[in-house]
Amino acid sequence: MYKVSFQTNCYAWVPKGYTGLYPGGENTLDYSLRSLAKIGYDGVEVDCVHILDTRLWMTSKEQRSLLKKAIADLGIEVEALSAHEWPLPYASFTSVDEESSKLGMEWTKGIIDLASDFGTRIVTTHVPNPQIRALKLLPGMPRGFLRGIGERGPIFGKPRVYTEEERGLMIQRVGECADYSKDRDVIFAIEEYSPVNFWKDFIKAVGSSALKINLHVGRVWTETYATKGVIEEPSLPEAVREFGSLIVHTHCMDYRIVSSMPPFTGQTTRPTIEVIPGAGECDYIAFIKALKEIGYEGYLTVECHRSDIPPEIQASQALQNMRRMISQATI
Question: In sequence order, what DSSP letters do the residues of 131-196 get, joined into one string?
Fold first, then answer.
């Protein structure tokens, strides 16, 4: 029976973005952990914005030891930490820009150290774009005032055009983070998977046993829908089998096609909306069965972003749905 985890970004999500950009939100990390433990989750993935808000990566080893015990006393495990860089403006550890690269690398390695001290095996992240540049801000302007320049990396089936220098930097810097993780008994799990061959070749080029895949269920589904215009099952099981033992973590989201709306301008498929896992069109039963086939033993980690539904309700309904689908898949 798989354990179920919840990523805390749902508790930090508000209609206009993350509460990390709007200080004073009431859904603190402490509240989020207590809420998820009370609902009945086995584990939690602490989101990057909560790490940023609480300055967790700046705490001492003694403070981390006390915090680890306090969380354990709640009866919930910190099974992963998110090192996504987007809350930090113009941060990219793969960037050709020295300032952007320095900021991104310090942030990422700091979270890897945090995971090691917590005894957490998984650090999740995207591979940031090497084309991101640091913005030159006026003296005294807060870092969070502006976002970075550049787009994300080659995700969702749309690989960017990179120079040989940029691709070399991506391989070198991801390898540096993976080796840093390996030295601390941590796995560096990138949330990249499409195109499959690109990332399998990329991981092979990096050549680190600590570099693995964090498979995002909803995004595999939406990518299949966007590129083919129809879901040709079993798209999710095929993705699982393609990556096999490279998968060490999952993000479980769900989507539903809005059939009453025509395609947006420039698109050939109808719009989709995010729904609570188990309430949409992702075939979770087949997905979980495929995970069993490849011998996956990690968490099924729920990720929700619905700002119109209280996080406690999303978390409760998602846990109920996930446990029902796990039970059905293991019959």
Answer: T-B---PPTT--GGGSPPBS---S-TT------HHHHHHHHHHHHHHHHHHHTTT-EEEE---SSH
